[in-house]
């Protein structure tokens, strides 16, 4: 039998979530099924009793006719109960299944909204942080020590002073592996951590960070190289932001070289990926990552950075939306995929995509 309503608990104890609705629906379905089985058992026992009554009435002859009528009515009554119970079972099963599906859809929507909110938080944190990096390189490119070193690359004392100045900056800005100065050919003439990274003399003329900086209109703009394993810092994964160093420190003057700041990408991105607040019981089922427009994995809670491309069903449709969530089949498993596009911060926008993929049980 169904438990009395009081057994559910007082209103202050009610957990009002789609998951709770789904659990209660399953419990209700099980209890209805059990009650109908009980009705079937009782009805069967009643029919057996009525048949026995009819047999005894037949043995009694004329005096047992009235009992035979009662026995027949009991059989008819039992059949009606059985029919009503079967109809109730069919109707309740249909309704409970529909309720369960509604609960599942609601639970998926609520979960999807939460995950897409988390995805947006992740990419927003990255955009805000990297905006500062784009400012740093433009600021330091106007530093007198950098300008003097690139205007006088043959003067060891001036170049060494620039290296020392970069070292001072790095002590305060620990998010960088190193800062380098390159001449107009892309050859490194100084860096901030020469004891750690022997990059002086290394040719970087074909590196994206150098070429994009040289292609800018002035020192008010910046160049960029996306996630890469840089030989300048021992193969660490980095982003490089860069800016022309212009004669006299004036952003509109002719360039004399390029300053590049080598940012510790994993130190920011992997921390965000691994510390995304996913419930402990869902952690093993969830992948958190950042990808570019091509789907290249740039940050990943599964640490498959630069080793994999995210090839989602309807990837273009998902990436076109600012924030969304969808149920997709990935590698034969149903997954809840939450997406948020780079919102940008101030004048900066990565244009990347934040994904949280949760395998559904």
TrEMBL record:
Gene3D superfamilies: Methyl-accepting chemotaxis protein, PAS domain. Residues 30-90 form the Methyl-accepting transducer domain. The keyword Transmembrane helix does not apply. One of its GO terms (molecular function) is transmembrane signaling receptor activity. GO terms for cellular component: membrane. Keywords: Transducer. It holds the Pfam family MCPsignal. One of its GO terms (biological process) is chemotaxis. This is Chemotaxis protein. It comes from Nibricoccus aquaticus.
């Amino acid at each position: 039998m169904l438990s009395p309503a009081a057994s559910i608990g007082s209103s202050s104890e009610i957990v009002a979530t789609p998951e709770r609705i789904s659990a209660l629906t399953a419990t209700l379905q099980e209890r209805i099924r059990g009650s109908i089985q009980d009705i079937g058992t009782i009805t069967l026992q009643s029919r057996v009793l009525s048949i026995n009554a009819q047999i005894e009435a037949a043995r009694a002859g004329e005096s047992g006719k009235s009992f035979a009528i009662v026995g027949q009515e009991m059989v008819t009554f039992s059949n009606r109960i059985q029919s009503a119970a079967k109809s109730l079972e069919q109707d309740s099963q249909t309704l409970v299944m529909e309720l369960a599906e509604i609960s599942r859809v609601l639970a998926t929507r609520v979960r999807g909204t939460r995950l897409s909110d988390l995805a947006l938080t992740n990419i927003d944190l990255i955009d805000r942080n990297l905006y500062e990096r784009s400012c740093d390189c433009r600021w330091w490119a106007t530093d007198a020590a950098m300008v003097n070193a690139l205007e006088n690359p043959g003067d060891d004392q001036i170049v060494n002073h620039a290296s020392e100045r970069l070292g001072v900056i790095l002590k305060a800005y620990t998010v960088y592996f190193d800062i380098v100065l390159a001449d107009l050919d892309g050859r490194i003439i100084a860096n901030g951590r020469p004891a750690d990274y022997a990059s002086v003399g290394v040719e970087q003329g074909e590196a994206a960070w150098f070429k994009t900086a040289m292609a800018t209109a002035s020192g008010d703009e910046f160049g960029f190289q996306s996630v890469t394993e840089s030989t300048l810092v021992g193969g660490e994964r980095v982003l490089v932001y860069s800016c022309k160093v212009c004669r006299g420190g004036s952003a509109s003057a002719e360039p004399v070289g390029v300053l590049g700041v080598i940012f510790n990408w994993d130190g920011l991105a992997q921390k965000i990926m691994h510390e995304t607040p996913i419930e402990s019981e869902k952690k093993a089922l969830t992948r958190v990552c950042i990808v570019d427009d091509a789907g290249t994995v740039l940050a990943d809670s599964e640490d498959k950075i630069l080793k994999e491309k995210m090839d989602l069903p309807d990837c273009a449709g998902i990436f076109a939306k600012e924030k969304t969530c969808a149920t997709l089949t990935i590698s034969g498993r149903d997954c809840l995929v939450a997406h948020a596009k780079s919102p940008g911060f101030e004048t900066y926008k990565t244009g990347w995509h934040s994904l949280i993929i949760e395998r559904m049980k």
